[in-house]
Amino acid sequence: MFKKLLQFEIYYQLKQRAFPIFAVLFLGLGYFTGSQGYAPTSVNFNSVYQVYFHTGLFTLGSVFITMFFAVTAIIRDKQHNMESLIYSSPITKHHYFWSRFLGTLIFSVVAFSPFVIGYIFGNYFSGLDTERLGAFNLLNYLQPWLYLVLPNIFICTSLIFSVSTLTKNSIATYASAVFIYMLYFVSSIFLNSPLLAQSVPASPEMMSVAAIVDSFGVAAFFEQTQYWTAYQKNTQLLSFSGLFLLNRLIWVVLSIGILLLTYRSFSFRKITKKVKKEKEISNKDKQLIPYKPIDGTYGVKAQITSLLSLIRLELKSVFKSLPFLVIVVMWLIIVFSELYATVVEGSEYGVSIYPLTNQLIELITSPLTLFGLILLIFYGSEIVWREHSVNFNLIIGATPVKNWVLFTAKFISLSLLPMLLITSGVLMCIAFQISLGFTNINLGMYASVFYYYGLQLVTYAMLAIFINSIAKSKYIGMGAFGLLVMVSMKANLLGLAHPLTSIGFMPRVTFNGMNAYANNAKLFNHLGLYWLSIGALLILLAFKIWNRGMVKGFSYKVEQLKQGCNLSEKVLFLTFFSVAVGTASLVFYNTNFVGDYQTDNDNLNFSENYERMYKQYQVLEKPYPISQKTEVAIFPKERKYTIKANYILKNTSNEAVSKLLITERIPVKRIHIKNTRLTTKDTIHGAYVFEFKEKLQPNDSVAYTFVIEKELKGYEEDKSIVNNGTYITFRNFEPIIGYASGFEILDKTERKKRGLPERDEDDNSDVHIALEDIKIEKVRFETVVSTHKDQIAISSGDLIKTWSENDRNYYHYKSKGKILPMVAYFSAKYTTKKAIYNGISIEQYYNASHDFNIDEIEKSTKETLAYCQENFGTYNFKHVRIAEVPSHWGFGGFAHPGVISMTEDRLYLSDVRDENTFNLVAKRTIHEVAHQWWGHTLTAKPVAGGSLFVEGLAKYTEAMVLEKMYGKRALYELAEAARRRYFFGRAFGGTPEPPIYKVQDEGYISYGKAYTVFMALRDLIGEKQVNKILKTITDRHRFENSPKVHTLELLEEIYKETPKENHHLIDDWFKKVITYDLAVEKSSYKKLPNDTYEVTATIKAKRVETQENGEPKEIGIHEPIKIGVFTTHPSLVKDNSTVLHYASKQINKELTEVSFIVNEKPNYIAIDPYGTRNDENLVDNIENF
């Protein structure tokens, strides 16, 4: 019997139209995904890592396959009134239940599996770069199918099938699928899953929790592979062990348990609804009421009353439905978790932020569109087809209510659903602010969320109504609209990137405290009107073909349209059509004619042509600026600025210069070089070629002038020039002298396709580092900056003079000596605070409402100046200016000569009032002030290793000052952040990892590994010796106009201060790529008769060297490493009172027994607790007794 039932179930499901649709859809998705060539640089497209990544991601969609097959398996009996017949047949509960379950499971697996087949074909038959394809290995595809696809579909099938079986309700089944899908994203956001936040790696503790909680196993996959290098990703299969194995076992066993519980609870009979017992009325109480006809009122007032009543009924029906409750609850959980995690618990370094309105809006609007679209996809069909679903459509159709009332009620009800999400999110934000005692609530900014985020969802609601009006059934309408939404999100891949063709596209308008609505508001307004008018036209068409009563075929709807429109409909149609055409014309004109609209292919063509035409100039010698004088006029309200620049260029080479290429960053109005002829003026590529009338001889100089008038045109956005918070850096405007290699196409496949040669590899040899003469010149700098009368303008140099004229403020700055030409110009409505410290003026320029951390910034600046002047020499300027810039700049801070820019959200709004939290404000301030020595006073030659001086030494200084201010607990936080950045960065590095003395653009080395190496050096030779080395080098190069220092010189100085027996460690740390695996294997202590304690432990220590091909190789260990015994956790150590023992121990083998005598009862023992070695896991370095 069971075999025949299963055969029938398979045959029945096979006949469903959805099966081939799902199979073909996932086959296409697999091919599309496999053919995209998406993989980190140096990782093969067909590596098992990539297959796992994409397969795990797309198994999230399996819930909807399972949902459909579960509905057809269980609820079809109820839909076709077959329950009584089946339940009274000889079929047993056992056979019925398991045949239906297996049928659902089998077809869910079979419908999804073509994804893997399509992925294989996409890898090998789509023209991908063969150099990025490894040898075909079926196991690369089979293992993810076995470990992810099968378990995930089994888990989803078990849960959804159980809900469907117990409720026999399609709505409950849909809700369970939506719940599983959204629960994943809720847990991912709450646990900081790397699938959603790869740029911010989760802590080991949170990764472990996520690896177990994630029912799809994706977080467990990331937990095992998060630090895999490119070599491992290309060669290593996933290990079915550890948390990955535990995750699979827990969720499969839990699913089996749910299935068995469902089987036990499942009643093999019809579910009947309980009917309330009506109160009987005695005959004597009954009264005959004579029939009285009612006069119908069908006027406008009655229709409006009907409209409001229908809206109330539609919304009441939605609010009572389970899927809606699931979506709203999930939304509120995400909003709460986002607010709590950032505002209360803290994000970066666990530091909270002040709950300003713009900050909270940015947090809640990220997931808003996703939740709004899910609501519209589901309820766009549910609301339109509600009467048809319950067979009430004929009765409704016979009522005297007009069509426009029925139609409008559904449209308004659907449009109000995303507004409810926004309202609830805003109310929760306000509640957060009030609960935290923050009363500066910007209600106007909250109200703008309904416009800037609600308008797009309303246009999608219009589209949903239209599609469901022409659809044959609810499910076709739901699927078609869902597909259209997905297509609109990937419009650029289909060649529909233009704002007018990308369905429903409206640019994201960001909010910040300094400048309110930071960008894109103008384009949003015009596109909003355009898509709203398009939506209104679709609504009119939907109204004309509205399904009232019986569902009509497509031909009937076409006939309805042919019948024409009445006068009011014609007026509305012409109005909306005119608005659509008018706004489309406006958008097209501003985008394509006023603006410089470029497709991706246009940009590639630009890069190709520029390289072909001007690559020849890359090898030519060129002069460099030695003097810069500028006049900068900033017009914040008009969002424009002008720059008049007078430079002196000097030929610092040994060869005469005959030609010079200048490449624009932005268009210049005038450009001139004295004693030259302009031989080429290429306005397409922004290139100018000047030929000297007489060659510019070595050490000769020439005048160079240019004028820039920057004014935003069309929909152009430039975050450097805003109403309040203008920040114009040299990179924003200054023409590039010589060939701009940054314009070149980087992708090897694209270069090969276009017939371009391979790009030259950088020469990183020691000879090149030491001898290559790469010129960068410091300059004499002078500027006059003017701005609006209510703003302050800032730049580098001493402030010579200020004055006001014609409602404008003028500021004259001039450098005392030569500075790096890394200048910037600021303008904002600043509040200022100034203090004098050892003759240096500490000047702060900030938004008046962002004054929370001003005292802390001043204190940290003083501490840094004191430490750096004492250890590294005098400060080069009379001032330190720290200026706030808007949060739309993505960095934390940037150091210009004597001037530092700091973003509002990452410094000024950090809440560091709790003394037990890490002081992020101090960290950021110290780091940027330290750059006045490391980057400006000591400027490294721009060759491999140069960034070690800039960021590596700033990180070292940051650690030294923070330790003096807050103790070793600060070092623990810095070490953990550096460790995570290093290992996560190397896992996604674009090129093979270089040794640290050859670091270039690898930020994970400059900011991560460099910290640990300098801290290890500090432990090895001492802080005084390290500082002596740095001061020696700084003093040697302090007054150089052209940078000369390089890492080989640094290493020579380090060797001088390091005992010879430890030189091999300097080579290991600086010249090799070595990682460690340190741990406390076991530990114990005992009390001695003299009231002291003997601590013993077994220390594990391994080292792994990464070879040139990326292959890891275990090597021996011979070095001293700090071991500590503490009364409190090392992360909480403020002073030495909780440190019982902290000293270096020579480690020469994998397992080492250690023993110490301490004076107090110990609670913790740790090896390298403050991260002076690059160890993937610091957790096992510390053990609690």
From TrEMBL:
Keyword Membrane included in the entry's annotation: yes
Domain Peptidase M1 membrane alanine aminopeptidase: 860-1069
Protein name stated in the entry: Peptidase M1-like protein
Gene Ontology MF terms in the entry: metallopeptidase activity; zinc ion binding
Transmembrane parts of this sequence: 21-39, 51-75, 96-125, 145-164, 171-191, 249-266, 322-340, 360-379, 416-438, 450-471, 483-507, 527-546, 567-589
Superkingdom, taxonomy of origin: Bacteria
Keyword tags: Membrane, Transmembrane, Transmembrane helix
Keyword Cytoplasm found: no
